[in-house]
Amino acid sequence: MSNDRRLSAPGRLADEEHGAEDAGVLTAYMPDEPLAEFALAHGLRVAAERPPIGRYLKSLWLRGHFIMAFATARNIAMYTEARLGQLWQVLTPLLNAGVYFLVFGELLHISRGIPNYLDFLVTGVFVFNFTSRAFITTSTVITESLPLIRALRFPRAALPLAYVIIELEQMLLSIVVLAVILVLTGEPITWYWLLVIPALLLQTIFCVGCGLATARLGANVNDFSQLLPFLTRTWLYVSGVLFQITTLDISRKYVALLQINPAAIYITLMREALLTTQRESEPGAKPYNAHLCHVWATLGKGAKGTLQEQLDSGYCHVITNPDHYWFYGIAWAVLALVVGFYFFWRAEAQYGRG
Amino acid sequence: MAAGEPMVVVDDLHVVYRVFGAGGDRGTAATALLRILGRRTRGSIREVHAIRGVSFVAYRGDAVGLIGRNGSGKSTLLRAVAGLLPAEQGNVYTDGEAALLGVNAALLDDLTGERNVVLGCLAMGMTKKETKEKYPSIVEFSGVGDFVDLPMKAYSSGMGSRLRFAIAASKSQDILLVDEALATGDAEFRVKSHARIEELRQEAGTVFLVAHNLEEVEQTCNRVIWLERGKIVTQGENVVEIIDRYIAASGGAPVERDPVTGKRIHARVPLKA
């Protein structure tokens, strides 16, 4: 019966001892050609195949409502256990700012030289919180949603995307809180405040890209989500959330590097949009600043250090050109999105293996 | 060469699960350090070779029953056909979308039933409007009643699986995979869900059914695949005969059948699953 690809007659079968050795021989309706060719000839597609990027993006777009509904539902579920409910969305950033102000502003006096330190600090904490939360929550999104992934087919990128949207909603609430604090502390409302919108948009794109990448990393390497809080904590201390990066006593090269790191860039963009003191302390913001810088450079020529070193200090502490902040903001956003999306999409068929 | 249009082609499929935290390594800090220092691979990752080289073809209109003991790979095979589990080796080819109805298809436990219905529909690719239209019939079918406002973790296991079944069965798909979905429901729900499966089978091309209730397989399926330890023992259209052999191999009492029709004489023969 070994050559008989069709089913044997019942009578013959009954006499045979069953066993695993029958496998692959006693198969009904098997075609003569190799199965792969047979399948493709009939227009069948590989079930767990990763769709091409174009089709993937389209199906992701079509799941727009799902992403929004998932984000809203998660957001509500997150606070159902708490008595104060979604009030925590506002309380959390407020308490955060309060703690940092108490410790770094009042106890440690890091505020040296920064005018209006409370506003400076709160803006920094809120903006950084968005970035770090986006990293931390997306790192567990695949493992948390395993039942959903194993039950239904949909583009998996919808999950990290929804988590970033949750954090964005939280951020929008934080910004309202922030606006109230700013007005209460005497910050004037100006047209510059509108720059918050593009700044936040760029930061969100950056977070989506990074969220996609961390989602894949967190799905494969369990240790990653354990490590992440420490990474973001380090990031917090080097991104000028609590102090002005330019006042650090380190090589100018490193200051420049710290200034253009994405977390710092989005914080700076937001501060420049909201805080008058920050805008005005930028070199060139006030004519007398630029003038003094010029005089200083001329006077000090040959005195000590190179011209560049002198330009980098005093009134012309231009290490990263303020005009370039937006350029860096866009560059980080685009880079993160492209790399993060590609990285996540590459493993699309692997999620849910567990 | 059989006539008909192939819907599912499974070609020498192997599926491997990787399980973390299996025995052997106690997972203490000391053993982890030794592992890193000794550059040894993590001993506690165990590979479970759940499907080992399965091949078959299912055609449009087929209702295929999968039988076998617990852990023989039936559910894994369904998940692979649904495209939810990647293959280690070999491939699964399908024509169109596959939907999996299973007891394990848990959705989001801390959300209300209502939100789960909406999310499930949207995730399956329905529009907002379609979801709105289907919503009443899904809740009605599931019979959870007022519980729809409560988080799903408050549901009894039967209620949960009824709701999940109702969500997944609300959309007609080309390939329908039913994994013990009916085992947890009560008698009334079984009748309803059987009718729904029959309906879906008319609309869908191919139905796969995993059930420990062999009578259910006998009644529903025109083909049967018997799996044992990830391999096919036998498969064919002689459903009754294969089931009888399976029962004999499991040590159960033989089923008495009418010699002419092949139907069971005692509908209530205790079956060994």
Description of the structure:
The complex is a heterodimer of chains A (354) and B (273). Chain A is mostly helical and 354 residues long. Chain A is built from 17 helices and one strand. In chain A, α6 (117-138) packs antiparallel against α11 and α13 (262-274) crosses α17 (325-346). Chain A is elongated and about 90 Å long. Chain A starts with 9 loop residues before the first helix and ends in an 8-residue tail after the last helix. By secondary structure, chain B is α/β, with parallel strands linked by helices. Chain B is built from eight helices and nine strands. Chain B has helices spanning 29-37, 74-81, 113-123, 128-142, 157-168, 187-203, 214-220, 239-249; strands at 6-19, 46-59, 63-67, 89-94, 98-102, 175-179, 206-210, 223-228, 231-236. The model of chain B has no long low-confidence stretch (mean pLDDT 78). Chains A and B meet through α1, α2, β1, α4 and α8 of A and β1, β2, α2, β4 and β5 of B.
Tell me the span between the first and last alpha carbons of chain B.
34 Å
**Into which percentage range does the β-strand content of chain A fall?**
under 5%
**End-to-end span of chain A in angstroms?**
41 Å
Q: What portion of residues of chain B is helical?
A: 25-40%
Point out poorly predicted stretches of chain A: 1-27, 310-315
Round the Cα radius of gyration of chain A to an integer and report it.
29 Å
Which structural class best describes the helix and strand composition of chain B?
Answer: alpha/beta
Determine Rg of chain B (CA atoms, Å). Answer: 21 Å
The description of the largest β-sheet of chain B is: 6 strands, mixed
Q: Report the count of strand segments of chain B.
A: 9
Query: What's the tally of helices of chain B?
Result: 8
Quantity of strands of chain A, as a count: 1
Quickly give the structural class of chain A.
mainly alpha
Provide key terms for this protein.
heterodimer; A: 354 residues; mainly alpha; elongated; disordered N terminus; B: 273 residues; six-stranded mixed beta sheet; three-stranded antiparallel beta sheet; 9 strands
